[in-house]
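User: Can you fold this complex?
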Amino acid sequence: GAGVSQSPSNKVTEKGKDVELRCDPISGHTALYWYRQSLGQGLEFLIYFQGNSAPDKSGLPSDRFSAERTGGSVSTLTIQRTQQEDSAVYLCASSLGQGASYEQYFGPGTRLTVT
Amino acid sequence: AQSVAQPEDQVNVAEGNPLTVKCTYSVSGNPYLFWYVQYPNRGLQFLLKYITGDNLVKGSYGFEAEFNKSQTSFHLKKPSALVSDSALYFCAVRDPRDSGAGSYQLTFGKGTKLSVIP
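Assistant: Here's the predicted assembly.
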């Protein structure tokens, strides 16, 4: 079946612009996660959704970052007023449930470059 | 708080030889442990997990991992390495007892680059 998809695959933007990153989870997966992967920081957790609600926003690095999920499916991560330090690969993952034993399935990521 | 350490940034192994990628963890309770692999310019792919039961876990592509509670380790192994196994490998942990804000996230190690030499 179809895996997690993300778009765009690459995004180059100028400092100060807003960007939107999209994630389509695996059909039927109720839990959705956003992570950021950068050379210096490894994999960082950003936010978690169960259905349309986000009980854990603890990883969002600043108030310039926000995310939403609609219809219990597609999620959008928005970064306002982008900074060069936002350059990274943004990974989305989904899992069948929220329990700790469920493995997460990752999308290919969006590579964001802020110039 | 939970943490994962992958002590080796890079592992080199000759094709056909056994490989081991090391992982140690720290959690307050019994851990749930995962291994993922990342090929260049691709997302992470799930390899295997340990939840409970047999300490030796078998996963995709001939990989296996052994949970050792006394040594707090979960090393990834394969009896005979292939050139196509060359990739970045991540160990991750979740603490199922953690009901706080971090309970839903996977905590990842920094990754180990595996190079299999023909």
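Chain A touches chain B at residues 4, 6, 31, 33, 42-43, 45, 48, 50, 55-56, 58-59, 91, 93, 98-101, 103-109 (CB under 8 Å). Chain A has a mean pLDDT of 91.
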